[in-house]
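Format notes (please read before filing issues)

Several people have asked whether sequences and structure tokens are stored in separate files. They are not. Every record keeps both together, in the order shown below: the sequence lines, then the token lines. Line labels are part of the format and must not be stripped during preprocessing.
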Amino acid sequence: MSIPVLYHGGLPHGTSLSDIDLFREATKQNGRHGGGGYAGFYLTESREVAERYNESSDDGGVFEVKVKSGAKVLDYGRDITRIKKDDLKDYAKDYDLMRGRNILGKIEYILLDKACVVSFNEIKNSEKKACVRLAKRLLLLARMLVE
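Then the structure lines:
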């Protein structure tokens, strides 16, 4: 299976691959009260999807992730949005990436082993776009205060 260029949106500007904890439990997936034990560093084939996800972050960027050819991919074939941390660690013993579908049926990947990544780069202009989003929010807030 050929792995396309993958993208992740929402990490703080300047993040490096070494900063990422692949098995950190995600607060968004675990809900307001946590306790779900869900984890994973999710990637998409679509830069546009990563950019839309990034829009919810004031200080975030969009990152391009290239994976080595020959990376071992677990084709999960079903919803991968609620995978437990311990299960991911088990899959990581034999695979570099996990491929499945999100709740909308779109393909997503979970990175299981950083060693398969050949490049991890923030896309230029994502910082500029974040500044524009923040400026728009501040302008909207200023208008609300004036009214």
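For reference, the curators noted about this record: Residues 72 and 95 are 5 Å apart (CA to CA). The chain has one domain: 6-146.
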